[in-house]
Amino acid sequence: MAWLETLVNGALLGGLYGLLGIGLALVFGVMRVVNIAHGEFMVLAAYFAVMLVSLFPHVHPLFVLLPVVLAAFAVGYLYQAAIVNRVVRAPDPLAPLLLTFGVSIVLRNLMVEVFGADVRALPLGELSRASINLFGLRIGVMPLLTLVASVLLFLLLQWGLKRTRFGRVVRATADRRDIVRLFGIKPDRVYNIVMGLSLALGAIGGVLLAVRSSFTPFSGVERLLIAFEVVVLGGLGSFWGALLGGIVLGMAQLAGLKWDPNAGLLYGHLLFFVMLLIRPAGLAANRA
Amino acid sequence: MTLLEVAGLDVFHGDLQAIFDLSFSVAEGEAVALVGANGAGKTTFLRALIGLIDRKEGSVRFDGDEILTTPAEEIARRGLCMVPEGRMLFDTLTVEENLMMGLLVKRSGSWTLQRVFDLFPILEERRSSLPRQLSGGQQQMVAIGRALMCNPRLLLCDEISLGLAPVMVDQIYGAFTDIRKEGTAIVLVEQDVKRATVASDRVYCLLKGRVSLATTTHNVSVADLTQAYFGT
């Protein structure tokens, strides 16, 4: 029973991991750019949330998500317009990689400068400790809410890309960025919005992760690693794959921790390594 | 009334010049064939017209306005549209979604989804299919329909018969009668000289980036065309 509980909790954590990965998957899928600074932007969103919570102590912490998400969208839009669009057409894939890597370093050090290197957390009070009893399993309310939110966001994103006009434009731009121009579409503007969405999703993940575990300006690397593993596990560019990858990773991590409490993220990483060997195209490869 | 007027156009690929001092015109509602051997610069010329190549000099006037430096997005909105070589469909969009892309230029006119389906009935049957599930000819129909959905004033067609079965080519060329009825002007780029000249009012021949022949199609002789095509 204890093991089952661990696995269920791992799956719940996995929903959050999926959220960390989906923004990365979206940007990679649409513009073939790996945004190395994704993790730093998530941490930045968490800092912004902590700041808002301390400024407005009477507002429930979950409500700060809205301004944080809007700000993250704006930051993503500007980040793409001012920086990433300069290299997105580079014939050499190394150019965007180096550029976003540089941005991640700058952001990390800026955060140390502005917020200090102390460990922070986003306290949620009662809610973070609440749990319910489900068929004899003790399940945290907050992790459950997180998984529900992730699934809803995945559904929303999927629906938006499949059914809306903007989704059609995004897919067409991902397919052929030159040809969409013949239909009056500026690919750069599509990229701006996609990066905005990516960082908005990342911000939700970043804030919810900050509720679960503390963070410092250096936590971006860890978050990027998880996001990266989730995306590769799931199959590059596949959204449901990313959710599935997140869940698998979360389960492996918590099961590993239970078996060997000193392991940290080791078993998640080992699983990732093994999966790379036996199924390098990812879990959702056949359906992508 | 002249719709497109190109004068003294030079186009460059990096350091190489691909088009030299080219003059070219299309009247409203006219069909013009542009023929020439592989590498003569036909596709480069079209891509420069439509705004996909930036390195160019000279003058391109469309409907009286200079559009040499106008970006491709804006040129499309003015009604200069293209069926690109190799069809270039959006691979993850269904047939219907590909066609709907034409609506994004927001030009009003007589071409609607239903009219494209009337023109190419097979597309209505395959509306939910992805391009890779279609035959080459059907893909070409999608590419033409997608451009028609823009309600173009001038439609540039690049090598639309390339690699297709003759019966398919007949069907596609048959559609041009309907398209021209709407008053749409057409530029047909072809390697199949005979096919292109039959369907057009005038013909230009390109040779190594220069116009080697410009004449009406009803009094062009095979000998002149051969000479202009091969430059011998």
List keywords for this structure.
A: 288 residues; two-stranded antiparallel ribbon; 2 strands; globular; B: alpha/beta; Rossmann fold; 6-stranded mixed β-sheet; 4-stranded antiparallel β-sheet; 9 helices
Task: Give me a quick take on this structure.
The complex is a heterodimer of chains A (288) and B (232). Helix content of chain A is 70%, strand content 3%.
Question: Which assembly state applies to the chains in this document?
Answer: heterodimer
**How many strand segments of chain B?**
10
Helix % of chain B is 25-40%
Beta-strand portion of chain A reads: under 5%
Integer average pLDDT of chain A = 90
Write the layout of secondary structure elements.
The complex is a heterodimer of chains A (288) and B (232).
Chain A: H1 2-31, H2 38-55, H3 65-82, H4 94-115, H5 126-129, E1 131-134, E2 137-140, H6 141-163, H7 165-175, H8 187-212, H9 220-234, H10 239-259, H11 266-278
Antiparallel strand pairs in A: 1-2
Chain B: E1 2-13, E2 16-27, E3 31-36, H1 42-50, E4 56-62, E5 65-66, H2 72-77, E6 80-83, H3 95-100, H4 113-119, H5 121-125, H6 136-148, E7 154-158, H7 166-181, E8 185-190, H8 193-198, E9 202-207, E10 210-216, H9 222-230
Parallel strand pairs in B: 3-8, 3-9, 6-7, 7-8
Antiparallel strand pairs in B: 1-2, 1-4, 4-5, 9-10
